[in-house]
Amino acid sequence: MLTADIWSPIRLTLELAAITTVLLLVVGTPIAWWLAQSTSRWKEIVATIVALPLVLPPTVLGFYLLIVLGPDGLGGLFGGLVGLRTFAFTFEGLVFGSVLYSMPFVVQPIRNAFEAIGERPLEVAATLRASPGDRFLSVAVPLAKPGFLTGAVLGFAHTVGEFGVILMIGGNIPGETKVLSVAIYDFVETLRWREAHILSLGMLVFSFIVILTVSMLTRRSGQRTF
Amino acid sequence: MLRILAGPLSAVVLVCATPDVARSDTTNVAVAANFTDAASEIAAAFANAGDHEAVLSFGATGQLYAQIAQGAPFEVFLAADDERPTRAVEEGYGVPGSVFTYAIGRLVLYSGEAGVVTGPETLEAGTFDRIAIANPDTAPYGVAAVETMRALDVYDALKSRIVQGQNIGQAYQFVETGNAEVGFVALGQVSQAETGSRWIVPRDLYAPIRQDAVLLKTGEANPAAAAFVAFLKGDEAAAIIEKYGYAIDR
């Protein structure tokens, strides 16, 4: 009943979301830690840049990405190293775009969790002669675990729901850039409503589970995300 | 404070009010993306010629048709094929007898850079990473692009390098930004561009792109819609259509 038309975008979307989430946890954690700890006057500027995708229309991001990833941008600079002219129309290009697009959804909950720890546990650890790295890994990260979970779930879910950016930089290549949301769009446009219904219902159930999960995670930790 | 605002505010009110005073009847027209430039010029000429105005919406023919089927408020539909306007009448959205061919489209292989596209040998040599076409599921120019590649026996070799725009406008944009080196676009899109390189695909390599228009039932009672259709059939519109590289069926 479910053909490759349906499975390929599902698999691709899950891969994209998983890789994006892992990258965002790696990149986002130091940013969240710095935002939580820093007293720099640049802090709010950086926090604003991270939060921009919440406000910008995806078309703005898509437009800039199309230029940045192209032969006159990153594609021209680094594409040659891997035999490409442009990073548009590639899975790697989608990962790059998704990391930017979903960044606030990962950084913000982790930052909140770091801030909620307060200074006290870290000071106690310092008086017990824990090094800064040790204080971060053995005290801050375990205490901020609910923030990491929330960030990971939201980052994953937001990437799964990405549409506008991918529509603009993807080129609709099956198995490479044709993700779920674009597949649904195409099914609707070509009046293939049975397939559109299957995928849309799946997304509906998935989204319900995600939000319920996040709500339960945050209720347990006493922090609200929604 | 009020005094400071009074000047600019009255100007705003004036600007907003003016169109109401000289209000003309408008009609909403759904236009296939390839016809964007020509339609815009025709709409401008139409507005100059009388007291009606046409408000244009652009998209892939398939997309627009799906929107019309869902009750979009379009009154005239300029498709990129001769299938969907007929279907619109059959399925009850179009006015019977109102279908006519307003333009015959030409397919072009285009590159933003000079010297890249020379002829069919550009496709046969295939010295490019990406070739952009319109989505063949929704856009007739995408179908013509696939037909051309099949006719030249290069489709299987090029298949993995195809990137699809949601409509012919996005295919053109992929080429213009350099993300795809070459692409199949409509002659109507590039006929006014002076740079780049192009090969106008011979007519025998793809089925003719007869672009039909239809008056939709939503516009049956609107004089502006009828006036636009009449204008589209007239000499002034024909001159614009031919200027953009389309042929006319007479």
UniProtKB/TrEMBL annotation, chain A:
Pfam family, one: BPD_transp_1
Membrane topology qualifier: Multi-pass membrane protein
Keyword Transport on entry: yes
Domain annotation ABC transmembrane type-1: ranges: 10-214
Protein family (similarity comment): Belongs to the binding-protein-dependent transport system permease family. CysTW subfamily.
Gene3D superfamilies: MetI-like
Protein name per the record: Molybdenum transport system permease
Keyword list, A-Z: Cell inner membrane, Cell membrane, Membrane, Molybdenum, Transmembrane, Transmembrane helix, Transport
Transmembrane segments: 16-36, 45-67, 148-170, 196-217
Species annotation: Fulvimarina uroteuthidis
CDD domains, alphabetized: TM_PBP2
Chief subcellular location: membrane
Biological function: Part of the binding-protein-dependent transport system for molybdenum; probably responsible for the translocation of the substrate across the membrane.
Subcellular location: Cell inner membrane; Cell membrane
UniProtKB/TrEMBL annotation, chain B:
UniProt cross-references to Pfam families, sorted A to Z: SBP_bac_11 (PF13531)
Entry annotated with the keyword Signal: yes
Membrane spanning stretches: none
Database matches in InterPro entries: AvModA-like_subst-bd, ModA, ModA/WtpA
Keyword Metal-binding appears in the UniProt entry: yes
Domain of life according to the entry: Bacteria
Record key words, sorted: Metal-binding, Signal
SUPFAM superfamilies in the record: Periplasmic binding protein-like II
Family listed: Belongs to the bacterial solute-binding protein ModA family.
Protein name (Swiss-Prot/TrEMBL): Molybdate ABC transporter substrate-binding protein
